[in-house]
Amino acid sequence: MIRKSLFATALLAIVASRSGAQGALSLEGLGYPPGQFSARAEGTGGALADFDPLSLVSPAAIASAGSAALFFQYSPEFRRVTTASGSAKTTTARFPLVTGVLPMGDQWALGLSSSTFLDRSSETSLKRTQIVGAATDTVSLTEQNKVLGAINDVRLALAWSSSPVLRIGAGFHVFAGSNRLTLSQLFPDSAKYISTTQTGRISYAGLAASLGVEIHPSRVLALAVSGRKGGDLRAESGDTAIGSGRIPDHYSASLTFEGIPGAAISARVAHDGWSSLNSLSSSGIQGIDGWDSAVGVEATGPRFLQRIITVRAGARFRTLPFAFNGEKVSETSFAAGFGAPLTRDRAALDFSIQRASRTAGSDVKERGFILSFGLRVSP
Questions:
Q1: Is the model's pTM score more than 0.90?
Q2: What is the pLDDT of residues 137-162, one digit of tens each?
Q3: Which residues contact 22 (CB under 8 A, 6 or more apart)?
């Protein structure tokens, strides 16, 4: 049991390792937060997220869904990391959001969603020399560390609205997920030295609750506020508890102006208390509390094949959750996208593209293109 506990602690240390081993600023600590936005909200830089019934941000927003709907999203990221010694390209495929919304009468709506809270998939390879055996032979070997997994947020939400002026919603969240780790030492001469591989799995579990309010004081103005209060987040390897922290508290406020015909201009600001994860283990996780702000526009676009296309654009500025060599990692992204109705408005396709730049006040820089494809189907 002692050996198992020590190995589990070592695995958690690797999960929390710095990007010098990971090769990406966005994969620090427990991983990268995609944002829990739908492709529609991502097209505005996230500025519309608190008003979007398909995003997992404000539970009050599901009251505006209008009809029952299922939504699926696929979001690959193409990333380049540049250092003083060169650059490397990586690709990450994500399925960050699945949402179902069911209106119940004229006043109530029920929503069940699952989204990626922190994505943690990476693979690194390092060649080095090592002294082996009593003969003190010096041989070269390749160390490979592979991590595959994520922490997901599953939310059950209920919203109420008696009129278009006021919407209120509450949500219950279950956070669950795992990181599957593989540690390998590979020798070039397999006849003389035996390569080794160790595998392990760290599981995460926690609970949280959220509340959202949306107010439309006039025909052209809307205000939304939401918050999530986090409970304990536990890390376990098998039946062994190896760490605990708290799910970060989240607060956001958004404003939308629709005084221009055919267009909606939105602004959003949010705060996340990522430092509550610092006590998850003694392996060096350093969470950074950060602000997340965005501005964006959604407007009626051209007509194509007798369908009106909605166009979107926006910008987002935020601090990522985990530090790089003790410094904050900032992200600036610019986004654009469109939405198109399909099959007599029984389905809709949303697409967005984001250009993200990440820095940490060092020689390491990261650029990424994130493409999001969202499909909404109404039964």
A1: no
A2: 677 777 777 778 889 999 999 999 98
A3: 28, 122, 124
Decide if 60 contacts 214 (C-beta within 8 A): yes
pLDDT tens readout for residues 169-218: 999 999 999 888 887 777 776 666 777 777 778 899 999 999 999 999 99
CB 158 within 8 A of CB 200: no
Beta bridge partners of 100: 70, 112
